[in-house]
């Protein structure tokens, strides 16, 4: 009996396997906490939202929001810092996806 090795998707010519893990530049870790988001541009500029964060990486954060933001919109996120005080982040919206419960799953990348 001969055993045939099946090549993985990444080694097939002309194809590339992309998984969620492969697309991410940094590993994410769960971070459930409260933060404040201020919209900086667009029709809802200066609107402030209390958000609950979902996870965090070195390059960004994801959260749920009742209102939809558009990709490319700039926001400020203020969240408690580990040593006390407030960490302030200028961010750009990179993902906005509606959920079945009427909320939106949002992801932002840190810009400064």
Structure write-up:
This protein has a single domain (28-110), classed as predicted glycosyltransferase like domains (Thrombin, subunit H), CATH 2.40.10. A hairpin with a 5-residue loop joins strand 5 (74-80) and strand 6. With 112 residues, it is mostly beta strands. The longest helix has 4 residues, at 20-23. It has one helix spanning 20-23; strands at 29-30, 34-39, 48-56, 60-65, 74-80, 86-98, 104-110. The chain contains one helix and seven strands, in the order H-E-E-E-E-E-E-E. A six-stranded antiparallel β-barrel has the order 2-3-4-7-6-5.
Shape estimate: globular
The tally of domains stands at: 1
Widest beta sheet: strand line-up: 2-3-4-7-6-5
Number of helices: 1
As a percent range, the share of helical residues equals under 10%
> How much is the radius of gyration in Å?
18 Å
**CATH H level, superfamily name:** predicted glycosyltransferase like domains
Report the CATH architecture: Beta Barrel
Number of strands: 7
Q: What gap, in angstroms, lies between the N and C termini? A: 60 Å
The portion of residues forming beta strands comes to: 35-45%
CATH overall fold name: Thrombin, subunit H
What's the CATH class label?
Mainly Beta
What's the helix-strand series?
HEEEEEEE
Mean pLDDT: 81
Low-confidence stretches: 6-22
The structure class reads: mainly beta
Largest beta-sheet characterization: 6 strands, antiparallel, barrel
């Amino acid at each position: 009996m001969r055993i045939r090795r099946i090549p993985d998707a990444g080694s097939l010519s002309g194809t590339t396997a992309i998984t969620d893990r492969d697309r991410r530049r940094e590993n994410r870790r769960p971070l459930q906490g409260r933060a404040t988001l201020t919209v900086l541009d667009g029709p809802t500029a200066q609107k402030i939202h209390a958000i609950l964060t979902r996870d965090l990486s070195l390059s960004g954060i994801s959260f749920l929001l009742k209102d939809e933001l558009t990709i490319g919109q700039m926001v400020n996120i203020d969240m408690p810092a580990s040593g006390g005080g407030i960490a302030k982040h200028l961010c750009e919206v990179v993902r906005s996806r509606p959920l079945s419960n009427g909320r939106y799953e949002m992801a932002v990348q840190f810009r400064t």
